[in-house]
Amino acid sequence: MRILLTNDDGIYAPGLRALRTELQKLGTVTVVAPATEQSAAGHSVTLLNPLLVSEVFEDDGKTFVGWAVEGRPADAVKLALLELLPDPPDLIVSGMNAGSNAGINVLYSGTVAAAVEGAFFRRTAIAVSLEYDQKIKDYPAGARLARQVIEGIAARNPPEGSLFNVNIPVLERGPIRGVRVVPQNSSPYQEKFDRRVNPRGRTYFWAGPDFLCPNPTPGTDVEGLADQYITVTPLKFDLTDAERLREMKGWEWQVG
Q: How far is the C-alpha of 233 from the C-alpha of 220, rounded, in Å?
């Protein structure tokens, strides 16, 4: 199996390194990822600047790892599929992200955006994130669990363009209770900003580090993570509101 591995934390991130080690048990892994951290970049792409690319090797200086792209996660996947890879991958994996990407975080996540970009190209794509609440993150253990879930998805031969979002709960909180296939939570999150004034009297804000969902919808990814389950959510990028569309078909328009 040919696997393209990308992320939004940057090509040198420990989560990517750990996941690459595990994915090599499933096939040939080539990395094409941003050169620097692109967290919360969403599905932005680079249009007004050149996309610089450099080859990356293991510490021995000989073993080829892949390419670092001076751009966004979606840029990295575009370049991989259109320019850099000699053959199309069988599977695209994005991660392993430092921090969960559940609920409405999916809309901001560069990790998920990279997987969405892969699905645009009719490849099976999986975003993987590791939740944490401590400074120390057990990436090898998280990557081992992620590989098992990825292997389970791939074994079922999903249709071309299938897209999945996988989140692994805080491992230090206790043993994993299993895997739950659940919908994305869409209830509101709680955010805070720290208001400050600079020496020139200008007001500025720092986004707070906590992005919490106080009332998750039962049976969704946010609740599953809190209950110590690995969550798997099939996604799609068609944002059409089908129910509203049917209603609007009966509208009469006065124009012209």
A: 9
**Mean pLDDT of the 104-133 span:** 96
For residue 83, give the nearest of 94, 97, 95, 71 by alpha carbon: 71
**What does the pLDDT look like over 226-241, one tens digit per residue?**
999 999 999 999 999 9
pLDDT digits (tens, 9 = 90+) for 161-196: 999 999 999 999 999 999 999 999 998 888 899 999
The whole-angstrom separation of Cα 84 and Cα 181 is 34
User: Rounded distance, CA 129 to CA 126, Å?
Assistant: 10
Write the CB contacts of 242 (distance below 8 Å, at least 6 apart in sequence): none
Let me know: does 168 contact 40? Beta carbons within 8 Å.
Answer: no
187, 218 contact by CB (below 8 A): no
Which domains are assigned to the chain?
Answer: 2-185+218-248 (3.40.1210.10)
Strands (E), the chain: 2-6, 28-34, 53-57, 64-69, 91-98, 124-130, 163-168, 179-181, 193-197, 203-207, 230-235
Greatest Cα pair distance in the chain? 70
Per DSSP, the residues of 142-181 read HHHHHHHHHHHHHHT-PPTT-EEEEEE--GGGS----EEE
| Strands of the sheet with 124-130, listed across from one edge | 53-57, 64-69, 28-34, 2-6, 91-98, 124-130, 163-168, 230-235, 179-181
HSE-up of residue 155 (Cα within 13 Å, Cβ side): 7
